[in-house]
């Protein structure tokens, strides 16, 4: 299912394709017909627009219309909702899809980050603004027999995967890599503290070396799939 929202939606020609390109985007889970943390994801789009000097304060007001569209679809079960901002056109596109499957074991192939070191980039924290590097990196990992790539900064510390943020469970703690250079994960902010507390884990945020990753349990996390374990290839 696909729909357009925003001030440009009413005037958008029927059947006319929406521009394709890199821009602010986000994805979230729809559980029982309810989009999870929708307001926070719309704020993510608005922050991305601001980073591109395309202020779009109208984005936060889209939540009721998006919820009504999902409710009207009447699709049972959980779904993935993918939102993308087309700022110059005044549009947010919404696509409702089946949830992606998560293989087990979920194997990660360590690879250098294809963009080098993004830790000094202000755009890197916004989903969709650091360039179209994720699909080639994912393809490279899968060519090695992995499900995803474990991306490393030039100093050998862990950044993220192409599809998820990372956590390392070790010695009663859950360690998260510093946020610089990667997409600001809403799951880290909104769900990890409760998840870690339920498991009796202390939260720490520090650099993780690749050799440390084999000493504990790796977790992947994102807003669509939730939390799932991973292993090194």
From TrEMBL:
It comes from the Bacteria. InterPro entries: Aminotrans_IV (IPR001544), Aminotransferase-like (IPR036038), BCAT-like_C (IPR043132), BCAT-like_N (IPR043131). Pfam families: Aminotran_4 (PF01063). This is Aminotransferase class IV. It comes from Geothrix rubra.
